[in-house]
Amino acid sequence: MSTPIPTWSPPLPEAAGFDHLVVETPGLRTHVATVGEGDPVLLLHGFPQHWWQWRAVAPLIAARGYRVICPDLRGAGWTVVDDPRIDRESRLRDLLALLDVLAVGRAHVVSHDMGVITAVQLSYDHPERVRTAVQLAVPPAFFAFSPKIVPGFRHLPRFIWHRPGTSLRGIFSEAYVARPMSEATIEAHLAPLRRPGIDEAVRPLTRGMILPEAVRMMLGVYRRRRLTVPTLVVYGRRDRPWTEQVLERICRNPERYADRVELAYVEDAAHFITDDAPAEVADLVLDWFDRSA
């Protein structure tokens, strides 16, 4: 069931051209921002972000004749849950229910950061629902562990032990962005953390979803499965330690694990790549759609 979005507190940040809905599924009222008409494209945000992460990317994709769907995933944004518990596949179940209500049988899926976990689960467990996939700032699930990537997880301890009320502004520091974010932009990303249940979801998301899925990847679970969805993996050149040399090393012989995976890089961009280089991200996404048709 979909209903017009009510008045939220804090107010939704401004983004021209978007329509807003609340989509009701069992135990969940998901805030969804949409723009455009045509074949569906699902954009799954990272952390600590929400639908507004895609404010500059989604309209560029929509302008090419796509319906772009940007949900606030469980534990983020303006989505409301009845049960705060989160397990490894909570967001996957949420997403499948959302797609069913929206009558989206199959979609292109673009994801960033924490959103990639759900996109990966969807691609491997329900490939019939995914036309193509683009994942930003996260390696393919079949990557091989290397000590060189350990610094790439330096942010996890603060999430594992996060105390509600503790600021997460540091995650938008120069270690993660190529261009400094304005105070207004940081505030727009972090504002929903003041909503009941959102700040409290940081530890459950990390402990219940990220860590179990990371262990599965480290143990090679996905190296024993086959990825059939055409997948593009995109990194910013300034996203350390994920250099091209490191990624080529940990993703060696991708044809053993996937039908089609490619790596691409964006100059002058870091982890928060959709803020650093939205136009370049949109260009890569649209090119991948065209080349995978």
Write the layout of secondary structure elements.
Blueprint: E1 2-4, E2 19-25, E3 28-35, E4 39-44, H1 58-62, E5 66-71, E6 80-81, H2 90-101, E7 107-112, H3 114-125, E8 130-136, H4 156-160, H5 183-190, H6 202-218, E9 231-236, H7 244-250, E10 261-266, H8 273-276, H9 278-291
Parallel strand pairs: 4-5, 4-7, 7-8, 8-9, 9-10
Antiparallel strand pairs: 1-2, 2-3, 3-5, 3-6
Helix pairs in contact: 2-3
Q: How would you describe this protein?
A:
- The protein has about 290 residues and is α/β, with parallel strands linked by helices.
- The protein has a single domain (about 1-290), classed as Rossmann fold, CATH 3.40.50.1820.
- About 30% of the residues lie in helices and about 20% in strands.
- It has helices at about 60, 90-100, 115-125, 155-160, 185-190, 200-220, 245-250, 275, 280-290; strands at about 1-5, 20-25, 30-35, 40-45, 65-70, 80, 105-110, 130-135, 230-235, 260-265.
- Strands 1, 2, 3, 4, 5, 6, 7, 8, 9 and 10 form a ten-stranded mixed sheet that branches.
- A hairpin with a 2-residue loop joins strand 2 and strand 3 (about 30-35).
- The mean pLDDT is about 95.
